[in-house]
Design brief:
This protein is mainly alpha-helical and about 200 residues long. The chain is about 65% helix and about 0% strand. It has ten helices and no strands. α5 packs across α7 and α6 runs antiparallel to α10. The longest helix is centred in the middle third of the chain and has 26 residues, at about 55-80. The protein is elongated, with a radius of gyration of 21 Å. The chain starts with a helix and ends in a 22-residue tail after the last helix.
Length: about 200
């Protein structure tokens, strides 16, 4: 995480360094990220950089933490307001992430990192009443599927921003399949371990 010296910088200068860093992290894989490129883009010296961060891993952790704070705050606020409704949360996350991407396109890769491993508070705030999965082990696949739908939709928007409305509609269709299921009629036996439904009923 950044040093106290970085925290004391004017917001404008901190934002300049953050944007330069996100641009570089989005340009190449992590192992090829160039600190020289970051400091040139941000117009700071190499010496100054190392008074702010220990290195590029420290900087990467900070970027993820910063975006995580924004996403985490929104997620927690939404779950508290809607009583822990996961699907209501996912309905709103698409538009919230689009707003963030419109401010800074490089956030896409950072957002992907954030949702790849939900924090403990995420599981603790989801209301499992009415859901088939009731514990963390069972609900993890649901969260992963919802996150995958969000990632795919944001990637499509990143590549084709002109198709926003179509992408938004397809995203909500995906979430509704998770919410209501893909089958018109769902047999209770399908939820029981070791019991398989006949795929070709008579």
């Amino acid at each position: 995480m950044p040093t106290e010296r970085f925290n004391r910088l004017p917001e404008r200068k901190k934002n300049t360094i953050q944007r330069a860093a996100m641009k570089e992290f989005a340009r190449v894989p992590f192992e090829k990220v160039s600190i020289n490129q970051i400091i040139q883009t941000a117009s700071i010296s190499r010496g100054s950089f190392y008074t702010y961060f220990d290195g590029k891993q420290d900087l990467a952790n900070y970027l993820v933490w910063e975006v995580g704070q924004k996403l985490g705050t929104r997620c927690q606020k939404t779950l508290e307001e809607n009583g822990g409704d996961y699907f209501d949360l996912m309905d709103g996350m698409f538009d919230f992430n689009v707003e963030m991407l419109n401010e800074e396109w490089q956030l896409f890769d950072v957002i992907r990192c954030i949702f790849s491993s939900p924090a403990d508070w995420f599981f603790e705030r989801i209301n499992t009443n009415g859901l088939r999965p009731e514990d963390r082990l069972d609900i993890s696949p649901l969260i992963s599927l919802g996150g995958s739908a969000l990632f795919l939709s944001l990637k499509q928007y990143y590549e084709h921003p002109e198709a926003l409305e179509k992408i938004r509609k397809n995203y909500h269709r995906s979430i509704n399949i998770l919410r209501y299921g893909a089958l018109r009629e769902h047999a209770e036996t399908s939820a029981q371990p070791g019991i398989k439904q006949d795929k070709h009923p008579a």
